[in-house]
Structure formats: C-alpha cells, structure tokens
Amino acid sequence: MSTINFSAREINFKIVYYGPGLSGKTTNLKQIYDHVPGESKGEMVSLQTEDERTLFFDFLPLDLGKVNGFKTRFHLYTVPGQVFYNSSRRLILRGVDGVVFVADSAPNRLRANAESLRNLRENLEEYNLRLGEVPYVLQVNKRDLPDAVPMEMIRQVLDPSGKVGAFEAVAAEFKGVVEPLKAVSKLVLEKLAQKT
Amino acid sequence: MLEPSLDLYGATFDKVDVVLSDLLVKSHARYALIVDRTGFVLMHQRAVWAPKPPSLDSLATLIASNYSANAAIAKLFGEDGFRETVQQGTDVGTYLEELGDKALLVTVFDASAPLGKVKLFTKKAVEQIRFLLEGVDEPRPTFEPDQAWSDDTGALLDGLFTERTHP
Fold it and tell me: Residue A27, CB half-sphere, CA atoms under 13 Å: how many?
C-alpha cells in the first residue's frame, strides 16, 4: 500500500517482481541497478543461497525526485521463485502496490509460469487483494532462446483475456527491462490519482 | 488514498523526535529508527558520537522482513508473535519493539550500551510514543495526488533511464 511520510515529504511505493524460479527476476533488478544513475538509487540488497539462488528477496530502492514538494520513491523487490519458498513470497507481498510477473520463455517452463501466477493469486488473497485490482504487467523473458515459446501461447496461458500489458525481454542484455517497470509504475501512479 | 503509516507530523513529530533523542542518551545506543512494517523508514535519530550508519533503506527493509519472518515462525508454534527481538553481534546489536500494528521501533547499540538499559529505555520510548500518537489533535496534512502529479511523476520515471540508455 502506498504510503506518505509528511515529515520527510516522501511518497513510497512497493513493486514486486514475481515469477517462477530462474525466470530472471534478480537479473531485472541487477540490470536496473546497473543502468540507473548513482544519485537515484540506493544499495541493492540480495539475500541469496550459496549457489546464488534468491533465498528471501532482492531489494533496490529508486528515488525519482520531487513533484509538488514530495519525493517519490519506489522500492523494488523480487521474491524467491522456487516452489518451496512460498512463505517468503507471501511475506514480501505485504504492502505491494504493483507486480511485474516475469515469465520464462522456455517450453519446459510453461507450466511453472502458470503455477507461479496461480500462486501469486493465492498469496495476494492472504492480504485480501485480487490480481485484477493490483496494477500488474507481464514480462516474457528469455526471448532469445532458440526454442522460445511463441508470445501468443504464453499470453493464452497467463492472460487469455489479453488485458494485461505484456513485454518481450532478454533481461540479461537489458532488453525489455525498463518498459515493464515504467508500465507498472505508471499504472500504480494512475490508480492513486484516480482514487482521489 | 495516500495515508501515513503513523501520524508523525507537526508537533507530534517534534515530540517523538525528542523521545528518540532521550532514548539514545539514556541507553547509550547508536541509532533509533521507526520503520513501518513494509520496510520504509518513518523517522530516525543518531547519537552525536555514533559513526555514520549504513544505508537506512537497507536496514529498514531487512528489519521489517526479519520481523515478518519471525512473526511467521511464531505462528508456526501457535504464538501471536515474538514481542521483542534481540540480535547481538560481537560489536553491534539491534533491539526491536512493536509500535502499534503498523510500525516498529528499532534501537541499534554497541558494546558500550548494556542490553538491559537498551531494553528498558526502548520499552519506555514505545510507551511515550504510543501516548503521543493517541493524543494527536492537530489535523492531518493532506496531499491529493491528481492526474497532473501522476503525469509529472511519470515523466521523472521516463527520465530516470533516458541518460544511460540513450546517451
């Protein structure tokens, strides 16, 4: 839930990168960290296992600057994708404002994508949220795989209505990383503006 | 609607600031932070003699996440939660108390501060802050995020990547 801090004159938002294991959530944050100017980003925190799999979360704070005297800040998080870390995923969703769902283009991960999206819906329900009410976009990563599943097929599985913004990406090459972040952030901002 | 996690503004903010300063003086702790449970820093104080703290954003996020994880562990055992959390390293430790249902008060201390004192004065500070928050009578400031604000903030977001991606 977006919050305002009147004394610090800050407005804060939380964006969570969700998706199956090894789909590229951490890669997204690393690429964002590498491409955002120093004064606009804080430290990136990664809680990983010894083999560099996300254990709890990755965290990157972004500082957009001031509008109307208030600083706008986005806190970006990833969740651990591996199935057995569901408790951690649920905790990270607390107070979420927007979600980037990072899907994997590999044919053998199609089912994992679908299961992760179902898991996202279930975990949001723990906070009385429905995915349709939370701003979210779809990033279809690893489009450079020679046997990448066609976009239409992935969309049919993850968003059959075709209503969700979808972006093709090769996150490891910084392709298609910025667009989903901008898209979900603008959805979050617009949702807030419409409420008032 | 944009709402603060705690009503920390105006005179209340100033009074809570004094409470945090007193906490540091009396306990000889390094830093005192109020963070909300989603990991944002609400306010903080640093003892005059204390070294520069690490990134407060990182600290607040890790503290809030750690608190949530501990609460989940407590739940596994049928507990409502662990009411206090102490972590002690060789040189530095943290002590955490709940501040209502939305925030946490965290005291960071080193070997010069006895843990008993840190606990005692942190608990007292929590009570004082609760009392101050319950007595807030000044109107909450307002901020209406309209479409113009949304557009201007969106433009800042566009600019964030422009410099590096399109030199």
Answer: 21
